[in-house]
Known about the structure:
With 144 residues, this protein is an alpha/beta fold. The chain is 37% helix and 24% strand. The chain is globular and about 40 Å long.
Amino acid sequence: MIVCGVELTGSDAVVCLLNMDRGQFNLPQCKVRKLSLPKNHSREDLQRFQAAFAELIAEYGVSSVAIKERMPKGKFAGGAISFKMEAAIQLISSVELTVTMLPPALIKSTLAANPLPIAFADTGLKAFQETAFIAAYVGQLHGR
């Protein structure tokens, strides 16, 4: 099962694919590290973002998307644009897809019970993909 971990920051959706096959995790090669929504974020821009995300999902055979949840208000609140991108991902209908929101508390408790099997530095991913990688890992564990 391939899970796409997503961290929504500003106008970017940082992605990381994680596959679990017979109890072994591996990172499929993926040419896309992040998808961006143009600054004016018009209806057409949102549709292009959604189409690009759906194409990524279809191309790599992703069955589930795990998004790190952002707080709607307070010190660590997510921006309005990130909530638009989240909705665009959740409303993808061109492919069969399960979208899961992962609250920070669930991520923390899951990592405490099931530490990462590999140090992030050894994955070969870019540093900015770490949160998306962790979301994909927690999504794999909760998707079983």
